[in-house]
Amino acid sequence: MLYEGDPLGYRSTITLIPQLENRMRRLIWIRVRRRVVITALRWWRAYFALAFARRFAFASIPFFIIITLAIWHFRGAIHVPKTGTDAWIDIFLGTVLLAIVPFAMAAYGGHIAAESIPEPKRRRKVKLMFWGACVLGVLFAFVQQYRAVNQDAETKSKTGQVEGAILGQLQSLHEQGPILTPEQVEANRRENILAMLRGEYILQHDNVSAGIIEGTEALPSDWVDVRLKDLREQWTVAESPRKASQPAEQKSYISWSGAPSFGRMKLGGDAHFQVGDLFGFNVDYINKGPNAVEVTSQCQSVFVEPDDSAEAEKRVVTEFKNFCAAWVKVQPHGKSTMTPGLALWVSAFAPEQSSAEPTFPRPIRRITQDDLDKLKSAREFAFVVAEINYIDNGKNRQLRMCSWLQPPADPPGIWHYCGIFN
């Protein structure tokens, strides 16, 4: 192909040279592959010609060598358990001594005996049967050696687990104190019997779970009861005494006594909000438990939001945390003791203006007619958030609450927990 402005065809020659080179490479590669295939077929034909001659035994040696090398090359893909010695050497030595040598000699004897058969096709068929049986025998012997190595490793593993359990029992018997009550002696004796039965169960059964081997899973009760009866024991697994457990820690905790309440409900009479009332609610809590607790700090507040969405809840909780952090610095709370069953209440108020960084003193918001209308028409929602920190049995504990009032906000009100901070 000549390009415009290239009368001598220089650019055309430059373009064709790589194409010619690629074509020559493909032709050479095709000839090389064809030569390799023809040579391999010739070798294969010569090998089979030698195989069915009287020197078949010598021709079979490369066959077994190739199979052995292939298995050795792919030994990483075959799972063999780790033992003290190289398991592959044991497998190959066992296969050679128990299979390859005797089977090859037997097949060679059959091969020689088949030479006396006058009919060529029948003679060849008999030879193939002898040598095919030899190959199958070697393969089956290899599988048998492989299974034997795996089974031996599994038996050693079980024996090691049982030995470890027995040594652990002996060590515990050696380390236990010299003075034991009769109940403790009997409990230890039964535990030792169960440990011995665990080892017996592992040795007698296949596919034992890891929990039984490690001692974290109980043995089948039916089997254990039968073995205990055989040992002439007068107890069963259900009657086996357990080690005395430590008495459970008795916890005392503070909990909320119902939902927040309107401020006027404590005074009696009409509990509805009135214009000019402080925008707040009362929160009741009680100490439930047998012990007294120490209240270290408490914080509560009311927030007014235009909706009850999850975003509003997040804003309320974030502003409450900022308020409490600032409140503790300005007005630190001394420890106060709450005796069991003591019920108290505290008032939470809304600030006159919400702020991410609260300042003190904090003016309290008062109810307006606009607030009453918005609370009834779901254009305004009141959130009550409170937190109490206290100490019970030397441990710091915390009680939190976040609730919002459902319109129309009539006493006693329908309160809902927030999705967070509870």
Structural notes for this entry:
The protein has 9 helices and 9 strands. The chain is elongated and about 125 Å long. A hairpin with a 2-residue loop joins strand 7 (381-392) and strand 8 (395-406). With 422 residues, the chain is of the alpha+beta class. A 5-stranded antiparallel β-sheet has the order 5-4-7-8-9, covered by helices on one side. Strands 1, 2, 3 and 6 form a 4-stranded antiparallel β-sheet that branches.
Number of domains: 3
State the order of secondary-structure elements, H for helix, E for strand: HHHHHHHEEEEHEEHEEE
Radius of gyration: 45 Å
Q: Residue-averaged pLDDT, rounded?
A: 77
Lateral strand order in the biggest sheet:
5-4-7-8-9
Q: Please give the oligomerization state of what you see.
A: single chain
Helical/strand content category = alpha+beta
Task: Please give the alpha-carbon distance between the first and last residues.
Answer: 83 Å
Measured by DSSP, the beta-strand proportion falls in 15-25%
Main pleated-sheet profile: 5 strands, antiparallel
Quick one: overall form?
Answer: elongated
Helix content class: 40-55%
Q: List the total number of helices.
A: 9
Tally the beta strands: 9
Poorly predicted segments: 1-12, 241-246
What is this structure, in a nutshell?
The chain has 422 residues and is α+β, with helices and mostly antiparallel strands. The chain has helices at residues 10-51, 56-73, 87-114, 120-175, 182-204, 210-214, 221-230, 310-330, 369-376; strands at 253-256, 261-262, 280-288, 293-305, 336-338, 343-349, 381-392, 395-406, 414-417.
